[in-house]
Amino acid sequence: MKIATYNVNGINARLPVLLRWLTETAPDVVCLQELKAPQEKFPQQAIRDAGYSAIWKGQKSWNGVAILGRGIELAETRSMLPGDDQDEQSRYIETIVNGISVGCLYLPNGNPVPGPKFDYKLRWFDRLITYAASLLETHTPTILAGDFNVIPTNLDASQPERWVQDALARPESRAAYDKLLELGWIDSLRKLSPTQSIYTYWDYYGYAYQRNTGLRIDHMLVNSELSEQVLEAGVDRHVRGWEKTSDHAPTWIKLSRQFTNPVG
């Protein structure tokens, strides 16, 4: 069973790229972020024609998250992160697939620092930590996948000195990410590749992709009930090199459990 996460940076603008990648790799479950489309503008029919059902929470011009399932119908179990009923930003959605709870998230960027956007990032992170702790108590195999907008360590940036004052690498952001790991969440890519430089994002400027000046900010955290089933983890880096592509590349894990797909 293959689960992937991908910040598409505008689902309608990048739809040909997304469909090409789905056809090429056929992941079973896909978490998407930064749809940049209102609810009614999600390309549901094109996704369905590609063999996937979808649940999504859109937002005009900004944010937006979705989960795709190959050949299965998905049921939404949560459409926002608990802890702030007044939060109108579309940043979290959740479902259950094959007995696995799948949470798709798009954590706030937080720049500029200091400022209200960084304050919102930290408040959102606090809510995530609280909810993530409650998920661990269920002992249900669970994954939290998405664009966390956090560079966990200097190993996760090709030029870490450039990001010292950025919200993605601020000590507060890293401490919040570390708190998730201290609770018992496992960074699946880093577990399998503890010393390797892995990037999931390359800026559009300065030939970042060509020079491989990247960041690892897209993460797939699993609980202990799922961790032992993770066989492989990787990044489809080549997708970042396609025409009119996102500045992120799809990130994925493969599990030992079979994917129950009624259409094969």
TrEMBL record:
Tell me yes or no: is Manganese among this UniProt entry's keywords: yes
Q: Where is the active site?
A: Y106, D147, H248
Query: One MF term from GO for this chain?
Result: endonuclease activity
Q: Which residues form the Endonuclease/exonuclease/phosphatase domain?
A: 4-248
Q: How is the cofactor bound?
A: Probably binds two magnesium or manganese ions per subunit.
Swiss-Prot/TrEMBL cofactor(s): Mg(2+); Mn(2+)
Q: Give the protein's recorded name.
A: Exodeoxyribonuclease III
The organism's taxonomic lineage, starting at the top: Bacteria, Pseudomonadati, Bacteroidota, Cytophagia, Cytophagales
